[in-house]
Amino acid sequence: MLQNKWFKTSMGFFCIFSSMFLVTILVLSLMRTDRITEPIGPPHNYWIPTEDDLIWIDSLQNQVKDIETDVNELNVSVNRIDRKLDDMIEEQSNE
Questions:
Q1: 3-state DSSP call for residue 64?
Q2: Of residues 93, 71, 73, the one with CA closest to residue 85
Q3: Are 7 and 1 in contact (CB under 8 A)?
Q4: CA-CA distances (angstroms) from residue 88 to 5, 65, 75, 85, 95?
Q5: DSSP characters for 2-63?
Q6: Which of 2, 11, 13, 42 matches a 20 to 30 Å C-alpha distance to 20?
Q7: 49 touches 57 (CB < 8 A)
Q8: In this predicted model, what pLDDT tens digit does every residue of 63-79 receive, in sequence order?
């Protein structure tokens, strides 16, 4: 296979064109001017809460705690009602 003259010629052309292609890509990537200049990582404009923000966040936390308490109370009430209904159904089935 390597004795064939046309095979050697075609492999030579392939190597020349592929190396030219790679050199072109390398040159074009070096000539790019739109470089990323921003630092990599988290943004450097962090939010610093003011006193009003802290008060607002505390009030939201209090509201969430109140809602959580209300939901827990409702859960207890629903469980109690469910137990009573189960007891009533059981009594009716026993009669």
A1: helix
A2: 93
A3: yes
A4: 99, 35, 20, 5, 11
A5: TT-HHHHHHHHHHHHHHHHHHHHHHHHHHH------SPSSS-S------HHHHHHHHHHHHH
A6: 2
A7: yes
A8: 999 999 999 999 999 99
Q: What are the tens digits of pLDDT across the range 12-51?
A: 889 999 999 999 998 888 887 676 666 666 667 777 889 9
The tokens of 33 are what? 């001017």
Q: Which two tokens stand for residue 36?
A: 């990323």
Assigned token pair, 29: 């990537």
Mapped onto helix, strand or coil, the DSSP state of residue 40 is coil
Q: Please give the structure tokens belonging to residue 92.
A: 């009716």
Task: Name the maximum alpha-carbon separation found in the chain.
Answer: 105
Q: What is the pTM of this model?
A: 0.45
